[in-house]
Amino acid sequence: MEFDAFAAGIEPGGLRNTKEIRILICYLLVSVDSPFRKEDIIDILQENGLANYFEITTALSDLIDKGSILIKNGLCTPGESARMIAKQLDGTIPTAVRQRTLTAALQLLTRIKREEENAVEITHTNNGIQVTCHISGGDMELMSLSLYVPDLQQANLVKQNFQQDPDIIYRAMLAAVTKDQKMMAETLTEMGMKKQPKQ
What we know:
3-stranded antiparallel beta sheet, Topoisomerase I, domain 2, alpha+beta
């Protein structure tokens, strides 16, 4: 297929054809069946080297202008033409690209859900910055933890690390307050394994 899109920032196997980029956006929205912000769609495709930023934004705007993608409450959902495009033409997109796109989209949705369920509040005080982490158990709060850090950079680091794996923090705290040495050892081992670099 002829390349007619900018290639800057695209990894091997990424898309360099404008038509393919439009198809991939439709495929993403239809396959995941969840609304996304425009920024999320751009991030999914660009951060994974699937298409050039400029080409993604152009393709997305074109699909919105033509009514293929509908905007409701700031979120993108597929219109009927987007569903037809995804159904009829998804075979145009290489399987590896489709898989990378879906994996990235599902990871983003998982992160958003985890952050919504396990909120972090950052409050500026006279003594520094208070970070309050909440661990949810569905309809109830399982644990709330507040700590002070000296600056916003550390506050954001605490927030990021907490929301990456709130379960392990909950188990570590539970093991500490119940003096469950076995649980603590297992939790510390798990934390150590997650910190090891990939081989």
